[in-house]
Specification:
heterotetramer; A: 359 residues; alpha/beta; D-Maltodextrin-Binding Protein, domain 2; 2 domains; eleven-stranded mixed sheet; 11 strands; 17% strand; C: 355 residues; alpha+beta; Rossmann fold; OB fold (Dihydrolipoamide Acetyltransferase, E2P); six-stranded mixed sheet; five-stranded antiparallel sheet; 8 helices; elongated; ABC transporter permease (chain D); membrane (chain D)
Chain lengths: 359, 291, 355, 268
Amino acid sequence: MRRMSTRALLPLLLVPAVALSACSTGNASDGADDGTTTVRLMAYATGGFKEKYVKAVIQPFEAAHPNIKVEYDPVVSSAEMLGRLRTQKSNPTIDVVIMDLSVAESANKEGIFTPLDPAAVPNMKDLSEHAKVRDNFGPGVTFDNLALVYNTEAVTTPPTSWNDLWDPAYKGKISISAPPQLDGIGLTVILSKILGGDYTTSIDPAIERLRKLAPSVQTWNPQPDTYTLVKSGQVNLALAWNARAQLQHDQSNGALDVVLPKEGSIMQVNTINLVKGSKRASDAQTFIDYALSPEAQALFAAEMFYAPTNTLAKVDDEVAQRTVMTPEKLKTMIAVDWNRLAEQRAQWTEIWRKDVISQ
Amino acid sequence: MPTSSRSSEGGTRRGAAAALLAPGLLALGVSFLVPLVWLARMSLNRTVGPAELQTAVSLRSYIDVLTDDFVWEVAWHTLWLGALVTVLAVVVSYPIALFLARTRSRLRGLLMALAIAPLLTSSVVRTFGWLILLSDDGIVNSALSGLGIIGEPLTLTNNVTGVVIALVEIMMPYAILAMIAGFGRVSKDLEDAAGSLGAGRLRCFVRITFPLSLPGVLTGALMVFVLTVSAFITPRLMGGGRVFVIATEIYDQATTTLDWPRASALSVLLLLLFGVFLVLYQRLFRMVEGR
Amino acid sequence: MEDAYLALSKLTKTYPNQSRSAVHDVDIDVARGEFISLLGPSGCGKTTTLRMIAGLISPTSGHIRVDGTDITNRPVHRRDMGLVFQSYALFPHMSVGENVDFGLQMRRVAKSDRRRRVADALDMVHLAHLANRRVSQLSGGQAQRIALARALVIEPTVLLLDEPLSNLDAKLREELRVEIRRIQQETGITTVFVTHDQDEALAMSDRLVVMSEGRVEQVGEPWAVYETPKNRFVADFIGRTNMFDGRVAGRSDGVLRLEAEGLGTLSVRAQQTDRATATVMVRPHRVRIDPAEQMANELKGRVVQSSYLGDVESVVIDVNGVRVLAERTHSGRPLTVGATVGLGWGDADAYVIPQ
Amino acid sequence: MRSLSEAIYRTVAGILVVCSYLFLLAPLLVVFVISFGASPTMEFPPKDWSLRWYADLAGNGEFIEGLRVSLLLGLVVTVVSLVAGVTAALALTRHRFGGRDAVIGLFTSPLLLPSVVLGLALLLVLGPVGLVGTYPGLVVAHLSLTIPYVVRTVMMSLNAVDPSCEQAARTLGAGPVTTFRRITLPLITPGLVAGAALSFIISFDEAVVSLFVVGTGRTTLPVVVFRYVSNNTDPQVAALSVVLIVFSLAAVALIERALGLKRVLSKA
């Protein structure tokens, strides 16, 4: 009851503002007149994701399903997506969301997302083990991995190992997005593994090692766009994500390059989710099924180097080499319990700030 | 003579006042009061697990915040930064303020505008200026190494040093404005009188000018302190992720960790802190004024 | 007065949170063409009364009628009254001509007509040459004349003057006094004038209304109010005066004899005879110093203070501990303080205050 | 003796004043000079001069879009603040009513609120009604920052206007609306101009509150610059900064002419 009353109060107080907005926001109508439906997809805004996803997945989908339109609502980060979804929980305008698995878990628990119907999304059965999520909640739609990017002009010998971060040559020219960003969390996991331990038991050795890195780091700021920092030579070495880095490499004519350190890395999974209470759940699942289909997965991999989650996807070897999907690479990936990590995120963030960044 | 003779006719007066106030109150209500109430309400909700928001009426967030060592550390750091910036900003602003309060130069208007104009320039732009000035290969470092003073560049950005330098500059116009306003009692005549009684310039300054300018200094200090404690842009852009203050913490909790109740509780506590400082300041001000 | 043009009846103004009414049960009738002054100390309610007539303040109760029409609830801008303010209240962003023209514009008077009437109004105050001046370039006297022209150009039913002269220096004030009275008589406009300056009120008005603490104390022609004040307040407020309280000791042939402390027996011509005590008023200029002829009241005293003012000499004399004010008009060398002098006045020079 | 100590005092004081001014204006001066340098490395002083960064600026879609949003937003915020602020100032100066002091306090209190707190509060409220990243949302977000200044400047002007001018107009036959239009409005124009300039520039420069409420929708110029500066420092931002500085200077000049900067800006 309380829930109801507080929720009811706010819109009432904001009537004037809503009235103001009514004339300008112009939400896409459901277009009932011509029989087409508009499915609203929320996904990443930055790093070329939107442009490539529209080209590789949405346009072909719309061509195949002339009565379904997909509108892309770009948002900077998964956290911000969750924030937005929360505020419209009672009356969602978004139908499908692509976001990081760790954040999606929270949304699943909060009841923002709803499990998919395996019958409506047949492609689910062909997904890799890594992509499957409990209870048929939104499965993985892309695979990626944490990597190192470097400025090719300043760095003559490309880094090969995470240990290269401690190379004095990079002193003051390193950028790492500290926790709560996933980059820093991931680095903690990787270091724990390299140092012969396991992040689930103790991260003390990793933190100890990171303390020595601290003075060399120029910025710990969460950069939505680390790639520009590297391209412009502001820093020479940075933690970054493979797929976007590959794209940036091509777009910057090689000013930046990306390596997967030999010790391996962690995988990052973007899941595709159905919003609970979606008024277009059936069309939304049609789209999700397409997004998980071998064709769509292959096309997007070719455009942006996210590895497909569908095992049947056929990807060019050249492209495949630049994604995380090759068997050799997959072997080096460290298994991560994202659910567990999400719960420890706050604690790790605090440890980082106290013991690493303050050095 | 009744002062209320300004009013217009009839029983419509109260109605007229209400009608005139309506747009302003509505605008402030929507853009200020409702959000604050909503913020206070949100601070009573709970976050469970990683980031799951639960509607509740609970002081959990406050307890969590207040029993968290890290929060205390950040708060302490914020206050320390505020105090340091306040002292420095007041010191560097004092000469300008005193000069502007007393000069009879024809250029006074222009100089006044020059001192205050930066206030109306975005702090993003001014912080950017400092990034250029202070970066490793920036102007300050190249000047210093050019003069042979330093061998290796000083790290002046992406750390607390840069934040302090930039904040001091950003706060200067506020300090200058507040001080000029508070320098009303500092008159040239008093100094001249002291001079005629045989006081040297320095003694004159220490015994007459400075004590009289204290209320202005206090007002300026409070203004700078309050603004520094809530500064966000500069610590974020200049701090290199190393400088944690309450403002950046609120931003992170609100946008990255998505712990809204915690962010709201922090905000409410920051507001309370402000209230305490305002009261303390008024006490102090009265003490100094009443001397 | 049955033929009253402007009639205030039982006019009362009470402000919330104030126990005393600012104006209480005020009844004033003003004849057509009459110049009437509201006079009183500050806070007596005269300005409030004027502003109620203008419509700037709404009365708590009572009525205002003009020419028989009740206008109590008519809004300001439909009252057709010309109001001249103490602060002139000229519109600083308009020229002199535009200021005068404003009221005509509001009345949608035709343009050609307006030009003529503005010129006439400026002519009337002898400032036709200033029509294009900025208001800020006017002197105080000029500004007040313009304000007068602006109020008159609309041919108001009543002209209301709210202490119009008090911001001016003494000489200008006297000049404008005459000027205002002249214009008022030329136009024959019914005028209500508010002032705290009794000289102004006495000099200009057909009749005075003396007010105190929100009430009307006395209404009458200036000379009547001056010579025969109705009570102590009026006697004291209008002009300087001596007032002596005494016990009635006897009466004969319309002359009352009073025993006053320190002064002995005083004789005064008076009608009323039925009270045991009375207050006698003697204006200082009626008191003779060292009188040549025999007078009904003769006293001796010591000069305590003497102020030489040129045309008169104002003297304070101590008579057995009672201070008596006197004036000498043909003085020459002023009296020395401490000198003993004789003083006296006739029984007709004194007046028994009725209340 | 006296003249010597006087001379020393004057010299020391003079040096201090000049140094303080240099420190205060350094970032703006540097940005200004760099923006005209030809080299992308931001050498100072530049060896060659060029306007290329300004040309780049014109071609940068993100900046131009940000500028467009900020200009439009600034205009709308200014108009709304003027309407709300002028009516409120009228009520507060021309009417006596209970709780007047409290209302005045309410109209000035947003000045003391930390922008991060306001930003968060607005985010929490604008989110559920779908106004994050929209023009109406941004307008609402900026109003509490600008209205206090408009109320203050207009009240200052109104207090300087002799109320008997308005009363005179009323007795001359002008109704309330005509009186406001013909008398009050022209007389408070300086306050309106100062208030408008101030609220425009405050909205135009506002970064923190906007950062919370832009989302991925309409992004204001300061937010674009903030995000850009997080990753880059190049002369293009310097050129953009100069554009922003020019807007500020224009506002400063307007306010100084209309009412005087000092009076308008003190926060107390």
